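One thing: mind reviewing this one?
=====
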Amino acid sequence: MKRLLTLLAVFLLVAGCANIPLESQPVAIPGDKPGQAPVDVPEPAAGIDSLTVIRQFIRNSATPGTANADARVYLDDEARRNWKPSPGLTIIDDTFGTVYDTSSSSGNPDEQVVNVRGFKLGNLSPDSAFIPLKTEYSQQFKLRKQPNGQWRIVDPPQELAVTDKDFTTNYFRVPISFYSSDSGAFVPDLRYVAAKPQAGLPGRVMDLVLQGPSEGLKGAVQDLLGDQVSTDTNVRSTDDGTLDINLTGIGGASLADRNLIAAQIVLSLQTVTLSRIRLLADGAALVPNHEYWRELPNYNVDISPSSELKGLMTVNGRVRSLGDGAPVGGPAGNGGYKVVSAAQSVDGKRLAVVEERDGRQWLRVGDLDRDLGSVDLFGGSLSRPTWRPVARGGGISGEVWTVVDHNTVARVTLAPDGRWVKAGVDATQLTGLGQITELRLSRDGSRLAAVVNGQLVVASIVRTADSVALRSPRKLQERDLKDVVDVDWATQDHLIAATSSSTLPVVKVPLDGQRMDAFNSSNLTPPVHGVTAAPSRQNLVADAGGLWVASELGEVWRPQAHTVTDADPFYPG
């Protein structure tokens, strides 16, 4: 966050200098061309050994720039001219080894082979999304002593590798917004752009907007712009500090779609500029009579639980309020059902419970404080239910998901006659990873988080006219995050996970798994067995001693006002 604020402050300072325009007129920016190394990139220090050449090549591969100029200076002349690295990056652990490979020696004293070994954390894909990956990393380099006596690489790899620290320093994470017609909300797609030069950040972000959703989110959201839309001129700041964006190819888009396009662009740029944004389409206002943009309506109001909904908890087979500890109305609160777990809809109006009955677990769904209808869905175990928004407005709480016997993802929908009926989910890609013990749908309905074999997994939800499928499941922090027992969505792009570990009981993870931050474990009595979170809410965990709340990562956990042992808390969603 500190680095984000610093970058933003520098960008705003540059954009606000009225007497020093960033560009005198719109011009096209040339793309990278191999072999073009700016003259101000110095040659490596004289006399460095082959191992140092390789280590510095990897360190400088993380510096974005024209034709990878900072890394290219470690190559011999022929490689400098011909090297064309593939798009994307491999991110490796900060600690990696470089050793001479004597088995591959040619016997020529002016040639050396160096092996690099480390641990791969993930890839930055060609669409600028981080994809977590747990595997060993190894790469072999051949070097040759040049006529001037300096060692240079003669066979640079097509795939660039950079350390995690250097990646974090040189790349800036941006949530690009895409629209979900199912929930009427904008969904963040975490992408990475070069952090410098700061003045070009808005243009690089706009490029990602135009590219559409990343591979992991395709099909789960709309691409409002499509392939036909581009920018007619470069994104630029004018003398008065306005950010100008001139689109072309919008064509006959409706007024509603133009407003959504405007919102998508403004939301995507809000992390890199505080300037007002001028949106044009073929030289005219994108939205008639609305040329300048800064404020937007809250498109995500329907997916955020109201502050009046304090949350609920299951205790000894009953559902109680987190607000005052009192039982909810109806059989779910008075003991009429033996409740194993439960979930409240985002709008607070409905309740889904898993009931223990006749040696099996059954799903019940209905209005809060009323009798809940029994659904023809049962098994030896059902995971805690979770709600998925399916429409804007009053119909938002129309679908419930659960996992039957750890291996079947099931959903029920509200039929026109008022009954809750089973519907299919193609979850093959997720169930193929192992036993599913927990499942949480994001409140915008585009993704789910699951606990699979004790690991944290995220997948996208792709819906067509006649099917629902889970796609692109990805394990987050696979190497370091184990023994996960519960998970919830703190925000649209961050998860809170609880583990049975005494050293790492509660963590916060971005939905792409690029990093992990541990909460303070003070006052907790491991093992933690439950967690719930929601936007603008305190994080709430359950351990052997009861319920505990904390708002920030470093904050000491405090007892919840109505804490009770053996409680499982949950916020709406």
